[in-house]
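Hi Y.,

Following your request, here is the sequence exactly as I used it, all 137 residues.
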Amino acid sequence: MEKLNLKNAAAFGNAAFTRLDRAEALYEELVERLYAIGEDIANRIELPERVADALIKAAQEHVGRRNGYRLAEKALTTAYRIVAKIAPADNARLITIYKLLGHVCCRQGKHREAMKYNALALLLQVNPQPISLRSGL
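Below is the corresponding structure, written out as tokens. Let me know if you'd prefer a different format.
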């Protein structure tokens, strides 16, 4: 029976985690660039609402991933800027964005921001008039 060399096993494990961390960092960088491009594209296409919807869906997917909350927050803030610009009275989208931002911020320990976003979502549900948000997004 072959002896287990703990030094080699630890080195192999560390190298594997390092490669995984690098791959995740590269993935996050690419996604952030895509979101920035998405906002620019939304300003040039006929139906920018679809870009906003895709960003909301992407954020929902990121919430299920390990360490996906930062990317979800980026996607949601980009979606918010698109919706606020093209359809500020679209309460359904804004409520969805605010609720998800509240959840994402809470999971990241940003409780004050989470409370603000949840309050805005509730306010829009109760009083469906557009809200001007200068201090937030």
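The radius of gyration is 20 Å.

Thanks again,
Q.
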